[in-house]
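User: Hey, quick favor. My workstation is busy. Could you predict this chain's structure for me?
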Amino acid sequence: MPHTNDHGSVTTPNGRFVTYPDGITVRFISAQETTVGSTVQPGSALVKVTLQVENASPAPLPITGNIYMRVYYGSARYSADPTDNTKSIMDPAPTQVGPSSQLALWETFSVPKAEVPSITVSPSEWLLGTTHTPYTFTDVGSVVTPVS
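Assistant: No problem, here it is.
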């Protein structure tokens, strides 16, 4: 399903979400550094990203895998690796977003510490299928909450 923009800054109200003509809305909720989920490698940070999917349609939105989003960093948009521990991804993985409902989805990624400010996030094809136009949440690195 097409929509008018292919990206938006999470630092602006309208850039924090994308709504498709079929009633599916994906909303950026948060990005935070964490120490839970995997061993932090020297020079890297673990970043937990949360998106919310709202399904205003009368049909369920199937989720066909457990990679809900893609995280990129750097000017070359390198793909960040999801961490490899069950505490770094939702378990059990949901299989759908029901009609007229919403679901928060989170995943943790390993990113070079120096590249955290450059992070962008895109919902994956496993979440939205191939019929929805890709969308990129930009400026995510500027709102990452550090580990306290």
